[in-house]
């Protein structure tokens, strides 16, 4: 999991020598449960919090070696989850009759050259070399020994965004094939007349997917660019250049049939100071162009220079697995529709010692989520009436390496996405006691909010919006891969207001975890854990999924959401 600012970085940073992922206001709308007979939450089966704790203790034990994909720890983890899914009443979730979906991963360690910049013909500018690490950080996702970008024209494309729903196009039809695209991080900060961020476009102060660096590389690849370089700015990025430098090292990726040749050859970041110099040499002013890029009228600008760089890759392949269990729906008319729970089983394995401990047990992150999912599965197999739609419980791999297991499932689904009605993602449960609130990340995205609202009220709890929407957490955990293919996805976090504790205690507890245990070997089961919050939150997730599984209609994205068009297309509504 990832929700803390300190780690709200790139997709990956280096911990213990491992390339690891940082893990990522609505109008009232009619409640769409539809079904007349909705069992009150209080009458639904309780989630056994002691059982949840027992699972966590096993999954986070030293015997499971920190659950790194491709290790003996993975084998134990996959076996344990499969056995527990079966004991909870599920059947093998892969239509081939097994409990797993194989996920082929490739680990790529790149050795990039410096970035050589040569002036365009007729330019007086001097040639320059940007030093790898000091001035530029780059990598290639191409599964090949060597990539080369040779004298590729550099073009500044503003924020690199193409958003038809906002009538926004930073490319304006220019030829981008084989070019090196230089772009800005974050959403375009469009101001309204009062000087505030315009809330009608790019979410106002909240981040949309267009602001994420992953979007920018994807869009550049779609445009046929040879290289995509994002100008690093500490404020908008949310992290310093030192964090970008930590992005070095082995990177895990999925291997597409085309060996990832569909990506730009080179992706990376360029230091702000070097970008300013580059713009100046082209007779341009970085700040003026940055300002211009906040307007729809912005046009791409050639930087009068060409970029050359090579990257030598060494690769190793790792076969990992998603674990999947199924509970068939009871209504023949709806049983071919699916509600999918996700949680990631992986963590960082064995790595650099911290305070003498080398096993990254990942108790909170995310043994808690997997443990809760097992018990939610049990509740589903016991509840009456039986859910009408089918349930899938998907324990994904390689979240910590960049949400890879969920990406693999979403792009290689075992059941049709058009029949996948919703995703509910659980990443790190609250082990510090009951809270009077629950935080909904990406509130306003879909009608799943209404289910969350109803379940929370029945628990006498309040739903709170994401306190930091500008950080784009909705785009940083496994549910996002479902959203990306159009499936409405719910992602909540534990609340912050603890019952019977003074104000601020929750934040303090959370900060302590972030500081002293998060993504460290010290993320272990502690004596002071209070599982009552887990039981309550798990029941919340269960109630939401149960009602979606029984509803008269599928939940929808809200009007204006960036994933709605994808869903409409997937459902053949166009
Ligand atoms: Zn994590």
Compact description:
The chain is built from 14 helices and 23 strands. The two termini are 36 Å apart.
Walk me through the structure:
With 574 residues, this protein is α/β, with parallel strands linked by helices. Helices cover 25% and strands 25% of the residues. The protein has 14 helices and 23 strands. The protein has helices spanning 49-59, 72-87, 213-222, 234-237, 241-245, 272-281, 286-292, 363-382, 404-411, 448-458, 479-484, 505-516, 532-550, 564-570, and strands at residues 12-15, 18-21, 91-92, 100-112, 115-119, 128-130, 136-139, 146-156, 162-163, 168-169, 180-184, 227-231, 251-254, 266-270, 301-327, 338-344, 349-354, 357-360, 390-396, 420-425, 437-441, 462-465, 489-494. The strands form four sheets. It has a 17-stranded mixed sheet that branches. It has a two-stranded antiparallel ribbon with strand order 1-2. The chain has a two-stranded antiparallel sheet with strand order 9-10. A hairpin with a 4-residue loop joins strand 9 (162-163) and strand 10. Helix 1 packs across helix 8 (363-382), helix 2 (72-87) packs parallel to helix 8 and helix 10 packs across helix 13. The longest helix is centred in the middle third of the chain and has 20 residues, at 363-382. The protein is globular. The two termini are 36 Å apart. Residues 1-37 have low confidence and may be disordered.
């Amino acid at each position: 999991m990832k929700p803390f600012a300190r780690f709200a970085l790139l997709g990956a940073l280096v911990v213990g020598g491992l390339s690891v992922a940082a893990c990522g206001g609505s109008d009232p709308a009619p409640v769409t449960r539809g079904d007349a007979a909705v069992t009150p939450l209080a009458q639904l089966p309780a989630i056994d919090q002691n059982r949840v704790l027992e699972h966590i203790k096993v999954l986070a034990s030293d015997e499971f070696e920190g659950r790194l994909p491709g290790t003996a720890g993975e084998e134990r983890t996959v076996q344990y989850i499969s056995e527990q899914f079966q004991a909870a009443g599920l059947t093998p979730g892969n239509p081939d009759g097994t409990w797993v979906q194989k996920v082929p991963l490739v680990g790529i360690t790149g050795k990039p050259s410096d970035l050589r910049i040569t002036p365009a013909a007729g330019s007086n500018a001097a040639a320059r070399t940007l030093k790898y690490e000091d001035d530029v950080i780059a990598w290639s996702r191409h599964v090949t020994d060597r990539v080369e970008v040779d004298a590729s024209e550099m073009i500044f494309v503003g924020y690199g965004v193409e958003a038809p729903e906002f009538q926004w196009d930073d490319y304006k039809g220019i030829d981008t094939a084989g070019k090196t695209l230089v772009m800005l991080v974050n959403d375009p900060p469009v101001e309204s007349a009062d000087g505030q961020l315009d809330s009608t476009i790019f979410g106002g102060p909240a981040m949309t997917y267009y602001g994420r660096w992953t979007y920018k590389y994807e869009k550049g690849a779609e445009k046929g660019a040879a290289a995509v370089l994002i100008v690093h700015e500490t404020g908008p990025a949310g992290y310093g250049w030192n964090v970008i430098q930590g992005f070095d090292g082995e990177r895990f990726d999925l291997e597409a049939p085309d060996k990832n040749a569909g990506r730009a050859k080179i992706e990376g970041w360029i230091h702000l100071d070097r970008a300013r110099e580059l713009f100046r040499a082209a007779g341009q002013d970085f700040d003026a162009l940055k300002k211009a890029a906040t307007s729809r009228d912005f046009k791409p600008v050639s930087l009068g220079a060409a970029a050359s760089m090579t990257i030598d890759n060494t690769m190793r392949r790792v076969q990992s697995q998603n674990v999947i269990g199924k509970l068939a729906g009871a209504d023949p008319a709806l049983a071919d529709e699916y509600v999918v729970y996700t949680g990631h089983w992986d963590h960082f394995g064995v790595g650099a010692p911290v305070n003498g401990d080398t096993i990254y047990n990942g108790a909170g992150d995310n043994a808690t989520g997997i443990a809760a999912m097992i018990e939610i599965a049990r509740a589903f197999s016991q509840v009456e009436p039986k859910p009408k739609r089918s349930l899938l419980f998907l324990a994904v791999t390689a979240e910590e390496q960049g949400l890879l297991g969920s990406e693999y499932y979403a792009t290689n689904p075992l059941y049709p996405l058009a029949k996948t009605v919703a995703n509910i993602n659980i990443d790190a449960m609250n082990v510090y006691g009951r809270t009077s609130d629950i935080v909904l990340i990406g509130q306003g995205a879909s009608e799943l909010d209404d289910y969350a609202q109803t379940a929370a009220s029945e628990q006498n709890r309040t739903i709170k919006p994401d306190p930091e929407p500008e950080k784009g957490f909705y785009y940083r955990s496994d549910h996002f891969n479902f959203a990306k293919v159009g499936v409405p996805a719910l992602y909540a976090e534990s609340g912050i207001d603890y019952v019977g504790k003074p104000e601020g205690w929750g934040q303090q507890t959370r900060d302590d975890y972030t500081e002293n245990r998060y993504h460290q070997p010290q993320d272990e089961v502690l004596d002071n854990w209070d599982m009552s919050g887990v039981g309550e939150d798990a029941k919340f997730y269960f109630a939401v999924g149960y009602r979606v599984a029984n509803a008269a209609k599928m939940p929808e994205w809200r009007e204006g959401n960036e994933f709605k068009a994808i869903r409409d297309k997937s459902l053949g509504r166009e």
